[in-house]
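Researcher: I'm preparing a figure for a lab meeting and need a structural model of a single chain. I don't have an experimental structure, so a prediction will have to do for now. The sequence is pasted below. Please return the structure as tokens so I can convert it later.
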Amino acid sequence: MENLNLLSGFFQAIENDFRISTTHIAIFAALLQFRASKDFVNPIQAYSIEIQSIAKIMSHKTYQKCMRELDDYGYLIYVPTKNKNRRSSIYFHLE
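Model: Understood. Here is the structure written out token by token.
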């Protein structure tokens, strides 16, 4: 239910935000799906390839750009790691 509330809130928030593209939406939905598979933890720890696979995004650059923008626009908090052996952290704004 919590993921549904997050998704619903996200769609309400982006309704008039023309910076958000279908790629951002796909990534956000993929993050929620990944979170559901991890027992709804917050933050989630994920490799980019795990989320890209769910979102059907092939380009790592596109993924990174959209994740940075989702963070910059305030939809989530993205803490990337430069170490390929460590997962990045993604925090959701829970109410």
